[in-house]
Amino acid sequence: MDISIKVELPLPPRAKGTPTDNSGNAEDVIVNLLDGQTMMCQLVQFLDAENTIQLYFPAKDKVKSLSLDKVKNFQLVNSRHFTLDDEYSGMDRNQVSMPSERQEYHLSYNDGSEDDGETFGYVDGTCGLHFFISQAFYNYYHLFIPFSALEKHRIGMELGQALLETELLQEEELEEGLETQKALRDKKLGEYFTNEEILTPAQLEDALRRQQSTPNMKLGEALIQEKLVTQEQLNDALQQQQKDRSVPLGEILINMGIISKEDMKKTLAIKLGIPYINLRKFNVSKDAVNMVPQKIARRHHVLPLCLHELKLIVAVENPLNRTPLEDLRFHTKKFVEPVMASYDDIEWAFTQYYGSHINALALELEKDEEEEDETEIIAESDNTLVKIVNKMIMDAYEFGASDIHIEPYPGKGKTSIRFRKDGELSPYVELNPGYRNALVSRLKIMCDLDISERRKPQDGKINFKKFGPLNIELRVATIPTAGGVEDVVLRVLANSEPIPLDQMGIREEYLKNIKRLVKQPYGLFLVCGPTGSGKTTTLHSILGFINTPDKKIWTAEDPVEITQKGLRQLQVNSKINLSFANAMRAFLRADPDIIMVGEMRDEETAATGIEASLTGHLVLSTLHTNSAPESIVRLLDMGMDPFNFADALSGILAQRLAKRLCPSCKKSYEPERSEIRDLLQEYCVDSCSELEKEARQKRQKEIYEQWKQKYSRRGMLVLYKAMGCEECNQTGYEGRIPLHELLISSNEIKKLILEKATVAELSKVGFKQGMISLKQDGIEKILQGQTDIHQVRAVCVK
Description:
Layout: E1 27-33, E2 38-47, E3 52-57, E4 62-67, E5 71-76, E6 80-81, E7 103-109, E8 114-119, E9 122-124, E10 128-134, E11 139-146, E12 150-155, H1 159-165, H2 171-185, H3 189-195, H4 201-212, H5 219-225, H6 231-241, H7 249-255, H8 261-270, H9 286-291, H10 294-300, E13 303-308, E14 311-316, H11 323-332, E15 335-340, H12 343-353, H13 357-363, H14 383-399, E16 403-407, E17 415-421, E18 424-431, H15 436-446, E19 458-463, E20 473-481, E21 485-493, H16 508-518, E22 523-528, H17 535-546, E23 553-557, E24 567-571, H18 580-588, E25 594-597, H19 603-614, E26 618-623, H20 628-637, H21 642-648, E27 649-661, E28 667-669, H22 673-687, H23 693-711, E29 719-721, E30 733-744, H24 747-754, H25 759-768, H26 774-783, H27 789-795
Parallel strand pairs: 14-15, 22-26, 22-27, 23-24, 23-25, 25-26
Antiparallel strand pairs: 1-2, 1-5, 2-3, 3-4, 5-11, 6-11, 7-8, 7-12, 9-10, 10-11, 13-14, 16-17, 16-21, 17-18, 19-20, 20-21, 27-30, 28-29
Helix pairs in contact: 13-14, 18-19, 19-21, 20-25, 21-24, 24-25
């Protein structure tokens, strides 16, 4: 349709030019009618004298005339640029403050509704009021309200003048009040945010009101005042900006290497009055978040904070970039005002208020759930699915997860993805059924598994550096489950280097004995514990301690989780009959000094390990048992020869992992006497169980005195409890600490092995020669403030 466009709207005070400067283009506009309707269209003519506007509706390709008597208000969607008058024509607009004639207004409409706001200028037109709402950095939004829609309105009228006119205030009192007000208004909003704790939208609104009456400082002037740039550098940047007006001055200075991003943020926040806030503390309004779809918020990297008068307050990293603000204005039909936040804080807030970024990616693959074969609608090679898988793995690594569990459900059921961290599973995301097969197939492709085989379990390994930016590996296990679907579990093998043995959290007495035992030229040293208790990590730390150029070390692992220079590492493969036992026999023909076997899971492997240790080699391995004494009984039950086993064994280290109290928020307290008494009883339940009551009480007193000597603060024992903070995701725990139990194969222990003694008999001798149980080690770590009794009890069942 051929449209006659003639949009003539008045300009703000101090603006250069005439109203015709704005004509020639249709304007996107939001029109609110008195009957409650809202229309999104284009303004093609504003006929002030005729009391009408002409609107173009692109979807219908139709122009419609509308009487202003039916209009409540209209506002232009896109902001206009403020063009300075002749007094400032020789200066760049980024260097000149906006006009400061800011005035509050109050509107009472005929339909009973009211509006409050603030305008830096207004024009009293023939048939209505034109308000100019400041956006930021010489942009403004045009708001028009017909007189026919208004019952009454107020613009300006300072409170002090009103009080004088009503004789409620004397002139001297007003002058004193104005001095105080000026002191408050001279305080920039950035300084207010720096010095005050802004936690709620109400506090933010108060800060915004304080700032409204203060004109912005010139950016260049602020940078020079802070001695961040020289006048010559500023002139060079301004000259460069003349070539491309779309690039903000601050961005040019950063690109020129004159100032850093942090310096720019500080200047913007403090000198220009743009608040720089901590999103981790601010009380974000859910209503504001709901106004901006996740996809738009992530695209522009903005977070809605709250509503203030007619404005939507949003957190951005760069307030000089106008594009996101324009887009938000269009989608929310609200004026948008930016405040500043760090990139990391905005990313953190996305997860808190929108959920994981993977949800945003998933939106790109949303399909109609009514499709007949929904499970086949997405291909494993789909670019967005590839992004989802990569993002899932990177999020798991960043989260500190040890495992990723992918759990599809048949039919219309969703696919659940969970992360295991510190021994506990937590939900990550749920994906629609359409992802089910493609997600599993994508993971199989990444680790070279058979995508057509869905009936049998498969094992594989992903070298993620081939697919993403992280240099990590993942062990993959697929398992067919009910309903014809497959579960996938990925173990994140992120630790490519061993942890130094001295940093493993092993008590000093144990550490000395372990170092002594593994420095022997031969013998069998075992680390035992359940799956996920850190046995492999401990073995590699031991290998790191004894890994010297004069030693030949072979390892057989399933899989190779940790690599270190100097080791010759082999991954077992049952498909080709390369078992632990066969690998050990091969090692014995390859002139080894030290052999590490991932696990003694059968009689053949255990017998071969004992044989190797008796022929002059140091053998390290793991065992799935609950305690050190139980490991001896387990191996004897597997059919080991007691004579050979007694000669070979040098020591057994049992291990558990307990959650560590978050160091950022754990809170100390003085325990009640009953709590200390309970700790003493639990500490002595194993080692003192055979003592008479009187002897047991005496022993408890001795232990209590030892605790006071080692752990007391000002003569009092202090314990800690979990609180919860942002660092630990409000759980009160961050990371894990190891608990240990070391049984050394002394002559008395060797004698008990020959006699095939019970666990109780072995434990009794172990305690006698200085062994402390897993729970005892845990209780001592409680007294050190590393964990609490709940976590120790959780991993030490006895």
